[in-house]
Design a protein that fits this description.
Oligomer: single chain
Radius of gyration: 17 Å
Helix content: 40-55%
Number of strands: 7
Length: 245
């Protein structure tokens, strides 16, 4: 049985990703900042007959919390087959470049970028022991520099002067990480789940969590010949999924 850690997995896209990977036969470490909420999420999955799951307290903005989660999971398994860096925050909208609050920006970057780096660095030792390790960094179409440079880009309406840059930075980390691991069997990709109706965006999104999670799961299940170091958004490119950085 393969093992996966999903951060921010007690609700929304993270929770549905956990459900779908459980259905695929994975053992899921359901990462959550609030352990009570994480256990409630686990109980929901248990009620569906999905029992190969446990809640793990992890605050990705706190190095000690990440280290404690690494110890907890390391005591349960010697191998981690997949990591989904899903936990994130928007920082509120709108965020114009000229009025973006630097304290808010620091908080968003600490979650969306530094948090993913902390978790990846903490768990890389367990991932390296997998025969087919997979890392998905959950990104956003708003982070595409190429698409965002189009004056008619549909997401300019959100004025993402903080969120977009934080995910663009995560994309660059994805590229660098994939390159560093190029001689190992890793597949490391950035995946945009799409504009999904969740509390993250006050349910303004047009997509479903089921569809969004399936897009993430697809890149966890990649075979040996699958891509690495790429950026995928099936919302932006339904044909091949790949979009420009």
């Amino acid at each position: 049985m393969k093992n996966v850690l999903i951060t921010g997995a007690n609700k929304s896209i993270g929770f549905e990703t956990a459900r779908q990977l459980l259905q695929k036969g994975y053992y899921v470490y359901l990462g959550c900042r609030d352990l009570k909420k994480g256990q409630e999420a686990v109980d929901k999955l248990y009620a569906e007959g999905l029992e190969e799951v446990e809640a793990v307290q992890i605050d990705i903005t706190d190095q000690q919390s990440v280290a404690a989660a690494r110890i907890q999971i390391g005591n349960r398994t010697e191998v981690l087959d997949a990591l989904v860096n899903n936990a994130g925050m928007s920082g509120g909208m709108p965020q114009t470049p000229l009025t973006a609050n630097l304290e808010v920006m620091n908080t968003v970057f600490n979650t969306n970028l530094y948090g993913a780096v902390r978790v990846t660095q903490a768990f890389i030792g367990l991932l390296e022991k997998s025969a087919q390790p997979r890392i998905v960094n959950v990104s956003s179409g708003m982070a595409s520099l190429t698409l965002s440079s189009d004056p008619n880009f549909k997401y300019h309406q959100f004025k993402g002067g903080i969120y977009g840059p934080s995910k663009a930075a995560l994309n660059m980390y994805t590229i660098a990480l994939a390159y560093e691991l190029r001689d190992k069997p890793f597949k490391v990709n950035a995946v945009d789940p799409g504009f999904t109706a969740t509390d993250f965006n006050n349910h303004r999104g047009s997509g479903s969590v089921n569809e969004a999670a399936a897009r993430i799961v697809k890149y966890i299940l990649l075979g040996e010949d699958g891509p690495t170091g790429k950026f995928f958004s099936e919302e932006m490119n339904p044909e091949t999924g790949e979009i420009p950085w």
